Amino acid sequence: MNKKAFFTMMMPALMLGAVSCTDYQDDIDKLGIENENLRNYNNETLSRLNSVVHQPESGVEKITIDQPKAATIIYEVEPMDLASTLAEDISRLSFVGQNGASLTITAATGNNNDGTLTITATPSGFDGSKDYSFSLIYTEDERSYQTAYTEVYVVTRPTALDINIPTTSGGKYAVGATYQLSAGFTPSYTTEQNVTWSSSDTSIATIDANGVLTPVKNGTVTITCTSLDNPAVSYSVTIEITGGNLPLNEGGISQGGAE
Questions:
Q1: Which whole-number Å values give the CA distances from 118 to 32, 109, 168, 253, in the listed order?
Q2: Which of 84, 175, 176, 247, by CA, is between 20 and 30 Å from 64?
Q3: Could you give the dihedral angle defined by the CA atoms of residues 256, 184, 201 and 216, in that order, rounded to the nearest 10 degrees?
């Protein structure tokens, strides 16, 4: 076979090879461009976010956790018109914290008018004896925006009470005097320390909302302290009132000094 005939036969194959190589190179170039675009991709939402800041409740700067109730946590979003965008897909939202506690997001709403992002989350694993702080993360296209950490206030109700009462000589409490009582709480880190006070017989002794005991006349009376936040928890103490039989200043003797 002469050279002219050989090249005539091989030319289509060579041309096919050239086209194929060119196609492959184009694909490689396209992938390179796409990869570069991915590396340089600046997600519009993330690039526009200036801040997402926890909006505290009135008088409470921390995130309030009251297990097992769902927690409502509100954030201020800047710019405001991104609030609804952040709430569109809760799978992109998550909380990160410590000490084994968790906040599982179940719902989110965004209000572009005031720039608020309201998140509903189920708390678990919180222990009032430990300190916690949580950060909100928004993730999109493998990039993320993370807020500053916010401290957590763990609501802890008492499981038991006792009463602290001043010690007196003979363990008796005199008419004409007043005594300051106070409640003791278990656990010691109880946060909900509001209590109510009551007397079994106000004709013998009264006690006000602040725990101030006022003996009225001789007798035995039971004073009870009850948790306002957990009414099933209470504690009672029985005390003896003395010194109430003589009228005030009769014969120069006051009720407080009578026996």
A1: 41, 5, 55, 68
A2: 84
A3: 10
